[in-house]
Design brief:
- There is one protein chain.
- The longest helix is centred in the C-terminal third of the chain and has 31 residues, at about 50-80.
- With about 80 residues, the protein is mainly α.
- About 45% of the residues lie in helices and about 5% in strands.
- A two-stranded antiparallel sheet has the order 1-2.
- It has one domain (about 5-80).
């Protein structure tokens, strides 16, 4: 699997950095959500076996789900105040 950034969807938040199993992404220049090009750059990494890759993807999805649910709960609490 080749890592890539979908430039039109990148807002420079850096969330992808935390879930990248190979540390192949880094934030360059801080959060800049108004830039037309993403403030990210890819780092070279070694390919990994497909089974390990699938396990890491599942772990990433679980982590992202947890982060999103936590954010949703926080927003709901803030809207309730």
């Amino acid at each position: 699997m080749k890592a890539r950034i979908i430039e039109e969807r990148c807002i420079g938040c850096g969330l992808c950095i935390n879930v990248c199993p190979q540390g192949a992404i880094e934030l360059v220049g801080g959060k800049e959500s108004k830039k037309l090009s993403p403030p990210m750059q890819m780092q070279p990494f070694q390919p990994i076996p497909e089974e390990v890759e699938l396990m890491m993807i599942m772990d990433q999805l679980k982590m992202m789900e947890s982060m999103l649910l936590g954010t949703k709960e926080w927003i709901e609490r803030m809207e309730g105040d």
